Amino acid sequence: MDGEVILLDAYASMFGMRLRIALAEKGVKYEYREENLPKKSPFLFQMNPIHKKVPVLIHNGKPICESLIALQYIDEVWHDKNPLLPSDPYKRAQARLWADFVDQKVHTLGRKTWSAKGEEQEAAKKEFIEALKVLEGELGEKPYFGGEEFGYVDVALIPFYSWFHAYETCGNFKIGTQCPKFVAWTKRSMQRESVSKSLADPEKVYDFFLILKKHFGVE
Q1: Cα–Cα distance between 87 and 104 in angstroms, integer?
Q2: Average of pLDDT values for 95-121?
Q3: Which of 51, 49, 40 has its CA nearest to residue 9?
Q4: pTM higher than the cut 0.90
Q5: What is the CA radius of gyration of the chain?
Q6: Beta-carbon contacts of residue 127 (< 8 Å; ≥ 6 apart)
Q7: Residues 200, 34 contacting (CB under 8 angstroms)
């Protein structure tokens, strides 16, 4: 018995997509509640009073906030099917390290490719590609970051694919020409039903992205 599972989320959130993928991998049924980010619900504030942001996983009335923490929670609670984290403690620690790298580098620099201007934007684009190349080095010849199996780092990273179109269009650069191994990994990951059905459409993300730019006053 899974108990009641609710996901407070927003369609374009790469962090929420992580949890959608993980729940799909585990075959967990849940109630999806879309949050209007410009006008967040009182329920979201109640469930995540510290950060007041999505996603929030609610299991049997108890909220789990922050996507990487919630991702690990999902893996631990529904551990019998498609384990995401390795059983070996060292490998598990390494997976957490790389997932943190995704948040610290890919997310932060990806945002700068559209929010910064001039020399700062050019520097951000260069650093963003360099971060993807570091990930390519970690991937090596493996099909997935989890090795032969789709795992924790793969789930943490693949949602950014939905945002690449927005990054590339706004920043006027191409990821595929500079990071072919990375692009091959995205295509491989997209063949999984849990991924293809959970990721937001890049064109719809771009529409949301334009609203986001206007909200932050970025021309």
Answers
A1: 25
A2: 95
A3: 40
A4: yes
A5: 17
A6: 105, 109, 112
A7: no
